[in-house]
Amino acid sequence: MSQQTFSKHHMLLFIRALTPLHVGAGRGVSIHVDLPLQRDEFDFPTIWASSLKGALRANVPDSNLRKVLFGPEPRSGELESSPVSITDARLLLIPARILTGVWSYATSPHMLSQLNTLLSTMNKGIVSVPRLQQGKAVVSKKDLLLRDARGREYVTVNEISFEAVAGGDETLKTLGNVLPDELRKLVEEKGLIVIPDEHSRMIVNRSLVIQYRVRLKNETKTVEEGPWSEEYLPSETIMASLIICKDGKMRKEGSGESKVEKISSAEVCNMLRNSFRELNYTIYVGGKETIGKGLVKLYFM
What we know:
- By secondary structure, this protein is α+β, with helices and mostly antiparallel strands.
- The chain has two domains: 1-22 and 49-87 and 233-301; 93-114 and 124-207, no CATH class.
- 24% of the residues lie in helices and 31% in strands.
- The protein has helices at residues 49-59, 63-70, 109-120, 168-178, 181-190, 197-207, 265-274; strands spanning 8-17, 46-47, 84-86, 89-97, 103-107, 136-139, 146-147, 153-157, 160-165, 192-194, 209-216, 223-232, 238-246, 248-251, 260-263, 282-284, 295-300.
- The strands form three sheets. Strands 1, 2, 3, 4, 5, 6, 7, 8, 9, 10, 13, 16 and 17 form a 13-stranded mixed β-sheet that branches.
- α4 packs antiparallel against α5 (181-190).
- The longest helix is centred in the middle third of the chain and has 12 residues, at 109-120.
- It is globular and about 75 Å long.
- Residues 15-297 form the CRISPR type III-associated protein domain.
- This is Type III-B CRISPR module RAMP protein Cmr4.
């Protein structure tokens, strides 16, 4: 008996937060905030694959295309599976405060290596990851630097200072080779600071936005509930995910169950990408949509 084989097609998905982003993990899982962000196994903010796939599905305008890409609704009783698989969206670049301007992008060897893991599945060139000693950072732009009394160059990121070392040009160049042009230009403009892994969680946590809210009674405008705290990734945060498309199928218009058109894995990926074109690749992800949070732009590569 011959075994049926299926082709697979891969796409990188970069996610840029246009407004502060809250994809929550629920109450009671954190001691420092009431409504924390989802986090990965290394305690970095992330978007779990289930949340990301749900947001993509909800924003595909065409209901028939939605079924082709993401399968039938869970309660429909149909057993067809989705030809689209999605990984967690990992944190890649996060805005951080600097003393020589307003903000620059911060990352770490760990965060860059997570991107390289995704790139390796696609046989793409990887990003140069610098080896950093404690207390030192790689900086891509000279105008991000300060000099101390001894003339040594340093950079201050979220109120933590690091001695600047060479290597930023190579990291920025190789990262630019895999980023979409719009993001590459943004990173070149704002600059890139690669901080050592032992400081990375602290820098990331200092970039997060903690917002306190209350709910008011309509009649008296007095507090009905709260205050409670919510955790957000800042606007301009960049995350990365991998999309794996398998061969799919689509029923022809007005046909019975037997008339099914097969779709290649590459076509499935193209259909997914093109389904967001009329939205200018801009959708809401996570909660707090009605107060302007969670607006992101998608970049399929």
